[in-house]
Design a protein that fits this description.
The chain is α/β, with parallel strands linked by helices. It has helices at 38-56, 72-81, 85-102, 118-130, 159-167, 208-220, 234-249, 282-285, 291-299, 311-335, 345-364, 369-387, 394-409, 423-437, 441-453; strands at residues 3-6, 11-14, 22-27, 60-65, 134-137, 140-143, 184-189, 204-206, 224-230, 254-260, 263-265, 270-271, 307-308, 456-461, 464-469. The protein has three domains: 3-286, HUPs (Rossmann fold, 3-Layer(aba) Sandwich); 311-411, Four Helix Bundle (Hemerythrin (Met), subunit A) (Up-down Bundle); 423-469, no CATH class. Helix 6 (208-220) crosses helix 7 (234-249) and helix 11 packs parallel to helix 13. The two termini are 41 Å apart. Belongs to the class-I aminoacyl-tRNA synthetase family.
Length: 470
């Protein structure tokens, strides 16, 4: 039984999908005006991990995540570079796919864009105006927050308190068009030189919040199972999505709301963001470190806990990935001498099945990746103990490889099989073996150092000498 922490109810609840065996999941995607930073990637990786775990548990996941390709920041980037907004968006959508593929993030079932959903957005806004849940003012269209009695339920704020807060803000030109400071834009009239579309209210473009409501309901239905995103989106973005969606459809918008915590930087735990200028781009860092290490770092913490980005945390992830990959490699090596099966195979495998059961218990508890990973470390530890046996079973080794591949794939990790050495390196390894037999240890050590300089580390084990690249 999978338990999900629901931001809406502020408690863990048993996950019960609308349709048995199917998860309808919408996750807010990036605004595509720049490369994604590690904070953006944390949300992408967290929900990819959650999706993968649902699939591991036998669910069919319909996973929709949008690209916001109409936005002030995109228009600004277009003006600064001499590109069109479409060209800016296309460039960074392609970059997103490239960077997330490097992190072994599965592509969404669908990645809708705002520009390709414009007719649906205009029709959605029209429906809200017809229901008198929205009004036109000077070419803009605003949602009437007072008409939605549950406004504030996701962020646990009363509409009265929100109205007081809104009234105390410095008034902007847009506020002058509103009946109430808390009303928010569904449609914004075009400014000179900006990209725009024809609508019943004149040329303009959508407000931010309406876009996700339309794309989610268009592709997943009026009510979806899970809506996810970063915790900074809970208010006002997700709050406004609920208000406009439920006002339009008359149905609950999402049954479970899930929000991931931030990536932090520095001793003060400051949130990583472009606005603060303290961000690290995925596009840049994966040129310096193995993308699998970054993925492992992002995926192996509980999604609702802040994640501190530091050199030491990356070093820890590097060490853990290396240990796991070495275990895969050692298993491949032992397969060459393994016997077909042994009498205790059933008992041995039962102990690994028990660990998988413990792993499921931890992950079923709101996708607790940190605890789940602790169980997998124990799995690897016992796996290594088995590899130290003088005689090992091919049946067990092949099962271990298959099960480990399945479990680590939940965290986006996969086995990296060593490349075959070329003839010269193999010849040196063979020469060293002969030197050791002849007790010519000086030559043996010389060859070891020579191979080390070429990135080949030798390991002398009870079962013979083996190598790995570093």
């Amino acid at each position: 039984m999978i338990q999900v922490y629901n931001t809406l109810t502020r408690q863990k609840e048993e996950f019960k999908p609308l349709e048995p065996g199917i998860v309808k999941m919408y996750v807010c995607g990036p605004t595509v005006y720049n490369y994604i930073h590690i904070g953006n990637a944390r949300s992408t990786v967290a929900f990819d991990t959650i999706r993968r775990y649902f699939e591991y548990r036998g669910y069919d996941v319909n996973y929709v995540s949008n690209f916001t390709d109409v936005d002030d920041k995109i228009i600004k980037a277009a003006n600064e570079t001499g590109m069109t907004p479409e060209e800016v968006s296309k460039k960074y959508i392609e970059a997103f796919y490239e960077d997330t593929a490097a992190l072994n993030v599965k592509k969404a079932t669908l990645n809708p864009t705002v520009m390709n959903t414009m007719d649906d957005i205009i029709a959605f806004v029209e429906a809200l105006v017809e229901k008198e849940a929205a009004y036109e003012s000077g070419g803009d269209v605003y949602f009437i927050t007072e008409k939605f009695k549950d406004y504030g339920k996701l962020s646990d704020q009363s509409i009265q308190d929100l109205q007081v807060g809104a009234s105390q803000r410095t008034e902007s030109a847009d506020d002058a068009k509103k009946r109430n400071p808390l009303d928010f834009a569904l449609w914004k009239s075009a400014k000179p030189g900006e990209i725009s579309w024809d609508s019943p209210w004149g040329k303009g473009r959508p407000g931010w919040h309406i876009e996700c409501s339309v794309m989610a309901t268009k592709h997943l239905g009026d009510t979806i199972d899970i809506h996810g995103g970063g915790q900074d989106l809970a208010f006002p973005h997700h709050e406004n999505e609920i208000a406009q969606s439920e006002s339009k459809t008359g149905h609950p918008f999402a049954r479970y709301w899930m929000h991931n915590a931030f990536v932090t930087m520095g001793e003060d735990g400051e949130k990583m963001s472009k606005s603060l200028g303290n961000f690290v781009l995925v596009h840049d860092i994966i040129k310096e470190i193995d993308p699998q290490i970054l993925r492992f770092f992002l995926a192996s913490a509980h999604y609702r806990r802040p994640l501190k980005f530091s050199e030491s945390s990356l070093q820890e992830a590097t060490a853990n990935v290396s240990k796991i990959q070495t275990t895969f490699s050692n298993t491949r090596y032992r397969l060459e001498q393994a016997v077909e099966s042994l009498e205790d195979d059933q008992d041995v495998w039962a102990s690994f099945e028990a660990l998988e059961g413990k792993f499921q218990e931890e992950m079923d508890d709101d996708f607790n990746a940190a605890n789940g990973m602790t169980v997998l470390y124990q799995f690897v530890k016992e796996w290594n103990v088995y590899l130290e046996r003088e005689i090992v079973s091919r049946v067990i080794l092949e099962k271990l490889l298959e099960k480990a591949e399945q479990l680590f794939a939940i965290f986006g990790m996969k086995e990296v099989q060593e490349e075959l050495v070329d003839d010269d390196i193999q010849a040196l390894i063979d020469e060293r073996l002969e030197a050791r037999k002849a007790k010519n240890f000086a030559r043996s050590d010389e060859i070891r150092e020579l191979l080390k300089a070429q990135g080949i580390v030798l390991e002398d084990t009870a079962q013979g000498t083996r190598w790995r690249r570093v």
